[in-house]
User: What shape does this take?
Amino acid sequence: MRPHPPSGSGPARGRGPVRERKLASVATGDRRTGEEDPGPRLWHVTLSVSGASRPVDEIRRALEQLAHDHPFLLTSRYAGDHAEIRYWEEARDLHDAAAVALRLWGEHRQTAQLPPWEIVGLEVIDRDTYHHRVAEGHGPLPASPVGVHPF
Assistant: This one.
């Protein structure tokens, strides 16, 4: 709880302490008393990047280097001005999996010689949701063939 703003600076003047409002939709993984920590889970990640057009051979070479450096990558698709990377990430919760995914492109830009594109899309879903979507004919199909391919 925090005190109200000084007198005359807001509508709640003179009514006592104000309760901080918490956003339930952005919980940080706090567990209720007695709940067991399920440990790491698998998350299916699709990262989309886009930017100024580059030669497709350059893009392919960079994505192949990224896949070599990080063999967890399932598949990458690319064109001269955009790419999509799909992989499985092991993480405690969605927040952790998304944080790793959002750092992937920037952290490996130099070592893999990735283009200076920006992340324009991110989807992170748990393993059960991924398999449910595939079974219903929705969502990304299983990566086949695995590797780096043009769109």
Q: What stands out?
A: The beta strands are 41-50, 73-78, 82-91, 118-126, 147-150. The chain is about 25% helix and 25% strand. The mean pLDDT is 80. The two ends are 53 Å apart (CA to CA).
